[in-house]
Every structure is written in structure tokens, then in C-alpha cells.
Amino acid sequence: MPNFLPRLLLGAVFVSALGTAAASAQDRFAPYYGDSASWSGFYAGVVGGVSTKEVPNVFAGNNLLGGAMIGYTTSLGPTVVGAELEGTYTSGKEYSLTGNASLAQTWSGAAKLRAGVSFDSMLLYGTVGYGWARLDPKGNVVSDPRWAGGFTYGAGVEYLFRNGLTTRLEYTQSRYDNVESTLAGGIKRTDSFVNHAIKAGLSYRF
Length: 206
Prior knowledge:
- By secondary structure, the chain is mainly β.
- The protein is built from two helices and eight strands.
């Protein structure tokens, strides 16, 4: 079984448990939730932020990223569940291998499940899914560019305006395991990389 599958299954269980807990709390805390029906429907928007190698020190080794997202959510009482596709481009991010050898991350994407609890116009949510990234050779890396994939998860907060616009702040961590590369001299190696991203988003709900 690929290494990311146990993590993906564990994350899916977590998101499912979050939704179940929110639904069971509906009757007890209903006066505080407000109307969550406006969270149902398709949405599309843009994201921007930073990709960083360290957390919580988000000011170390940052690289700018930007992209777009499209998704769908539905409201089940105070519980909001859905799915999302996201694509981004990161500028200048490199994973160092050894000496003058590195892999540069450029394009990346993710297919994610989302589940959370709405408090009228505010949504607190968790997300889990599968992410992939294009890694280009730099320096002494002689192997071809390749796509790497793995487990991604995170959490965020989103606010819904009455005109259908939403803003969000989200943290995600993506893991790219067993990435193979070849260095000058025919040296082969396998590495695993972790990418932290802090993103702000703006979207419109249809």
C-alpha cells in the first residue's frame, strides 16, 4: 500500500468525525448557529500566500504562491461538507538534496474534502486530500522533471458576505514521499519533502 494511503484514510476519518460531531451538536447549540443554508452551492475563486519550510516560523524560507480554486459545499444543519480542487504556482521554492543539487517546485494542485461547522456567516473547517507537485531538476540533478504526490491536510476559517463573496485564511501541509532523482555521475536517491502553505482566498458562490 502506498505510504500516503494510511494518512489519507486517517484524515478522511477525522473530517468525517468532525462533521458527525457538528451534526450531533445541532440541537443542543442551535441558538448559536444561525442559518447555514447559504453555504450550499458551487464556488470559484483565487488564492495567494506563502509556501514555507518551517512552522511556526513562517518568516523562514518563504516563497510566494498564487492560484485558483473551484468547489462545492452543502449544508446539513450547522455542518458544512464538500469537496474542492485547487491549483497553484509557487515562485522560487527549492528542496535541497546535496551540494549543488535541488528540486524546484513550480506547479502544484490538490483534490480535497472539506468539513466544518458554520456559525451564521463564519465557517470553521478541516480539509484532507491528495496533493501533487511538479519538481524540476536544478544544479547537479540530471533526471527529468517529474510529478510527485502525497497526503495533504489542513484547517481554515472562512467568512461569507451577503453578496455571495467569501474570504478565507487556510493552512495546509503537503507531504511528497519517495521522490526519486538522479544526480550527476549516476547517483540515485530517494527523498521525502514537506511543504507548508499559508493562504488567503477570495471566492464567489454561485
